[in-house]
Amino acid sequence: MTFAVHGLAVARGIAIGRAVLAASSRIDVAHYFVDAGRVLSEIARVRSARDAVIEEIQRLQQTVALMSAKEAPQELSAILDVHLMLLQDKELEEGVKHWITDRLYNAEWALTTQLEVISRQFDEMEDPYLRERKADLEQVVERILRYMKGVASPVAPPPVRPAPRQQDLQLGDTEDVPLVLVAHDLSPADMLQFKQSVFAGFVTDVGGKTSHTAIVARSMDIPAVVGARSASQLVRQDDWVIIDGDAGVVIVDPSAIILAEYGFKQRRGDLERERLARLRHTPAITLDGERVELLANIEMPEDAEAAVKAGAAGVGLFRSEFLFMGRQGHLPDEEEQYQAYRKAVEGMQGLPVTIRTVDIGADKPLDDTRRDASHLNPALGLRAIRWSLADPAMFRTQLRAILRASVHGPVHMMIPMLAHGSEIRHTLALIDHARAELDNTGIAYGNPQIGAMIEIPAAALTLPLFLRYFDFLSIGTNDLIQYTLAIDRADESVAHLYDPLHPAVLRLVADTITECRRRGKGVSICGEMAGDISMTRLLLGLGLRSFSMHPAQILAVKQEVLRSDTGRLAPWAQRVVQAEDPAAAMAG
Fold it and tell me: Cβ(296)–Cβ(307) under 8 Å?
């Protein structure tokens, strides 16, 4: 009987094939106390298993290094780095030793207990990308447990077979049928194994839009649905499965009519992708001749390569906080930061790079040693520029590194979460101070443009103040929506109220774009709205000419740009912004 399972659409396209069920990723853990005399041997058991997993990850890294970019995308290598970092995390190691030594827990129990402790810290993070790193931690702990139990990987890669045309499949086909993977969750190491097989798509019970499965699936351009909750329990081995990565739907045991319908959609999608690929070198110019800048959001210097390949006109958001996290309080020094920023700048081959100063704080702690339990509502507390201004020496170190990197190519410096005039003046004074420090030491530096993010209603409502001091503005829609609607993005109970089309949000966005254009200042959007093609025409109609998004979304947005006439869109966009129900106005 045909039925559908709904999840999150994270990687576009349609995959059709028979299901391969990955065994449950959960391992039963025994709970018991040990004698004091066994404490050292229990600690040694955990350490030995952890070291074995580290060696396994390092072998995988070596394998990835030998692969081409198409065979092993940059994102996969980066996630393996994250897993290695988590395995070597001191908080994990010291926590396990504590539970064994002080509570006399057996090794497995101590490991899972410490996992719960650290997981709670991830749950409290406001940033969805960072929050989902909990899944990475769970996976490395699971691999340690598996070694301790002597259990092999939950799934083994099937034999490599030639991939037939999925759109021509019939329900009676039994040979050369593509396979789709259905799992509770997938680790990057598992995905690397699957990559060399014939898996046409992925479905997982857990995960969000920024989970590693989603990231890798997007980078590999493989249809995927995550967060499908009980899919791995509802789907049976060898069931026919259709993954609709555009709609976030998994159709199980389809009828012949449904199979044929999705075969047709797949052919249409394949043609669409081929058309999009041809747009890579096409300038993003609207029908009425307006040039539009399509930029990339990146997290690490190595991401610059993917941005260039996607045809990005530059980097609109380099999230520098990823250089600072998980280091147990040992922040990157000026030289390390300078080398990282320089690598990103040189990687963009002359295209501009916008480096956001560290956006970290109570909601996104560097690590447990810097967590301050006194912050009851971290999203409203000491974070982003507030955190930087509270530690001027740390902030000046970053500023000097960015200034130095700007010698190697066009760099823009962007400041997050400003709201007050005093914060603006304090920030600019510290930038001047950093320049003076470099002058005193004779170190060369460039002259980057200085910009600010508009992500608090207070900032959007005091634009003249910001435009007086800054060269450009960038609208961070994720936080602007959160703060405008008083919706904690981390709270699932109010997630349904998170609405980019709320009239208040649209008016703040529209006013910011209008005022920047009127004053001749650059303005872009770097939040999720920028990469959402359902919003592209509205933003173009409001006057936006610079979008920054995940590299994988650039070509689809470019297509929307090429089909748009901003002269015609402008009056329509104003009607949408003024409407009581903007969503209905857009559809009408």
Answer: yes
Contact 312, 351 (CB under 8 A): yes
d(CA 460, CA 509) in angstroms, rounded, equals 8
Give the closest residue to 45 by CA, choosing from 96, 115, 98, 113: 96
Backbone angles phi, psi at 354, to 5 degrees: -100, 115
Q: Is 526 part of the annotated catalytic residue set?
A: yes
Q: What is the token pair recorded at 460?
A: 């959007």
First to last CA, the chain: 37
Which alpha helices (DSSP H) does 66-179 contain, by range? 74-87, 90-103, 107-123, 128-131, 133-149
Q: What span, in angstroms and rounded, lies between the C-alpha atoms of 379 and 484?
A: 13
Q: What share of the chain is helix, strand, coil (3-state, %, to 5)?
A: 50, 15, 35
Which one is catalytic: 83, 212, 408, 412?
212
**Low-confidence residues of the chain: pLDDT under 50:** 25, 154-162, 368-369, 371
CA distance 286 to 293: 11
Q: Which two tokens stand for residue 56?
A: 């396994």
Dihedrals φ, ψ of 476, to 5°? Answer: -90, 90
* Residues 543, 556: Cα–Cα separation, whole Å: 19
- pLDDT per residue over 76-104, tens digit each? 777 788 888 888 888 888 889 988 998 88
Q: What is the pLDDT of residues 211-236, one digit of tens each?
A: 667 766 776 678 889 888 888 889 98
| 357 touches 388 (CB < 8 A) | yes
Determine the 3-state secondary structure of 449 from DSSP.
Answer: strand
Any catalytic annotation for residue 496? no
d(CA 123, CA 478): 18
In the set 83, 408, 412, 526, the catalytic residue is 526
Cα(181)–Cα(208) distance, integer angstroms: 17
Cβ contact 159:198 at 8 Å:
no
Sign of CA dihedral 517, 519, 522, 523: negative
One-letter amino acid of 59: R
What is the reported pTM?
Answer: 0.65
